[in-house]
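Incident log, support desk, overnight shift.

02:14 A customer reports that sequence design results differ from what the structure should imply. Their input is reproduced verbatim below. On-call engineer (initials T.W.) acknowledged and began investigating.
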C-alpha cells in the first residue's frame, strides 16, 4: 500500500507517519509513506527524524493548494490521509486567509487530484470544533455543523467538501472528527506544551476568561489508531467521531499541570476571554466504538505524565520553535493566548 500523508510534518500527521513506518498500525504494515508538507511555522522535519532513514519513507515539500504539484504527487498512491491544515484558533482570529487557502482551497485541490488519479480511499481528518459549542450532552455524527471561529468554519468547509466528493463523484471518502489531542511533538503554542514548557522554566501561563471552558482530551497515538481503524474499515461517505472520554475544564487541566511542576496559582495570568470562544465540546463516540472496536488505550493522567517527561527530555526539539510561536510567551503577546 502507498499512503500519502498530507501535513505529515505536523504534530498528528508525523505521529501517524512514524507509527505506520514502525508497523504499529494494524492494516498498514509494510506501507510506503509519502509525507507532503508545506513546512509552515508548525511543520517541522525534525518530527520525522526518527524515521528519516526508513527506505519506505519519502518527503515532498509543497502546498496542497498547488494543483500541478498535487497532480504529480497524488499519482500512484492508494490512500490519502489528509492532515494538512492551518490549525491554530488564535491565528485564525487574527486572519482567516491562510485558513481559507489551506483548509478549504487546499482540500479541494487535493480532492480533485484524488479523483483524477482514482485514489482508493481519502481520509479527511477533522475536528469536534466544527459543531460549535454544546452546553450539555454530546454531538453524534448526524448533528449539523455550526462553527463559531474561522478555524472551525474552514475545517467544516474542508470536511463537507470531502463528503460532497463522495456523494457527487463516488470518491471513497471517510471523515474523522476528533477531540483535543495532546502528546509529544506538539507545537509549543498549544495549551499543554505551552504550559509545560513555561512551567518548566518557572514562567507564567495564561488562562482565558473564567477558565471554565471544557474540552475532551485524547492522546495523539490513540487518535492515530482511530484514524487507522477508519481507514481500514470505515464505511465510505461516513463521519466517525474519535474522542478520549477525558473531559476537563481549563481550570482542572491547569491544576494538574501546576501540580506536576509543584507550582502554584501565582504563576497563572488570567487574560480576557477570546472572541467566539466555545464553552464546551463533547462528542458521542458510540459509532467508532461499536462499528470499529475503538477504545482509547492511554488514560489521561498517564499520558500527561509521559508527555511532560517527553518535553523535559526534548528541550532541544522545542526551544528553537519558540521563535516561531509568536504568542507563546505572555511578554511577547499583544493578543491573549489560546487555550485550545
Ligand atoms: P499542526 O499545525 O501541528 O500540523 C499541520 C501541518 O500541516 C503542518 O506540518 C503544516 O506545515 C502543514 N500544512 C499547513 N498548510 C499546508 C498546506 N497548504 N500544504 C501542505 N501542508 C500544510 O496541526 P495538528 O495538530 O497536527 O493537526 C493535524 C490535523 O488534525 C488538522 O487537520 C487539524 O485540524 C486536525 N485536528 C487536530 C486536533 C488537535 O487537537 N491538534 C484535533 C482534531 C483534529
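02:41 Re-run completed on a clean worker. Output:
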Amino acid at each position: 500500500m502507498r499512503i500519502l500523508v498530507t501535513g505529515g510534518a505536523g504534530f498528528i500527521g508525523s505521529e501517524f507517519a512514524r507509527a505506520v513506518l514502525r508497523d504499529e498500525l494494524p492494516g498498514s504494515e509494510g506501507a510506503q509513506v509519502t509525507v507532503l508538507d508545506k513546512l509552515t511555522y508548525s511543520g517541522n522535519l525534525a518530527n520525522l527524524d526518527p524515521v528519516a532513514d526508513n527506505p519506505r519513507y519519502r518527503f515532498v515539500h509543497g502546498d496542497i493548494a498547488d494543483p500541478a504539484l498535487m497532480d504529480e504527487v497524488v499519482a500512484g498512491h492508494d490512500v490519502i490521509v489528509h492532515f494538512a491544515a492551518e490549525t491554530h484558533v488564535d491565528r485564525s482570529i487574527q486572519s482567516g486567509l491562510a485558513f481559507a487557502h489551506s483548509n478549504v482551497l487546499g482540500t479541494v485541490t487535493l480532492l480533485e487530484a484524488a479523483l483524477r488519479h482514482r485514489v482508493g480511499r481519502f481520509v479527511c481528518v477533522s475536528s469536534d470544533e466544527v459543531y460549535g459549542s454544546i452546553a450539555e450532552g454530546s454531538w453524534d455524527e448526524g448533528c449539523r455543523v455550526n462553527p463559531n471561529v474561522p478555524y472551525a468554519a474552514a475545517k467544516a468547509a474542508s470536511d463537507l467538501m470531502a463528503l460532497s466528493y463522495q456523494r457527487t463523484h463516488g470518491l471513497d471518502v471517510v471523515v474523522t472528527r476528533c477531540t483535543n489531542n495532546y502528546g509529544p511533538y506538539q507545537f509549543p503554542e498549544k495549551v499543554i506544551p505551552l504550559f509545560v514548557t513555561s512551567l518548566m522554566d518557572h514562567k507564567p501561563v495564561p488562562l482565558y476568561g473564567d477558565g471554565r471552558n471544557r474540552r475532551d482530551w485524547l492522546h495523539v497515538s490513540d487518535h492515530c489508531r482511530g484514524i487507522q481503524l477508519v481507514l481500514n474499515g470505515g464505511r465510505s461517505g461516513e463521519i466517525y467521531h474519535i474522542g478520549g472520554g477525558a473531559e476537563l475544564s481549563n481550570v482542572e487541566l491547569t491544576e494538574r499541570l501546576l501540580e506536576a511542576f509543584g507550582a502554584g496559582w501565582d504563576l497563572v495570568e488570567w487574560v480576557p476571554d477570546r472572541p467566539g470562544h466555545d464553552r464546551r465540546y463533547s462528542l458521542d463516540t458510540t459509532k467508532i466504538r461499536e462499528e470499529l472496536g475503538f477504545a482509547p488505550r492511554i488514560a489521561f493522567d498517564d499520558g500527561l505524565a509521559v508527555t511532560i517527561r517527553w518535553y523535559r527530555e526534548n528541550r532541544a526539539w522545542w526551544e528553537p520553535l519558540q521563535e516561531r510561536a509568536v504568542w507563546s510567551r505572555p511578554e511577547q503577546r499583544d493578543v491573549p493566548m489560546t487555550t485550545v
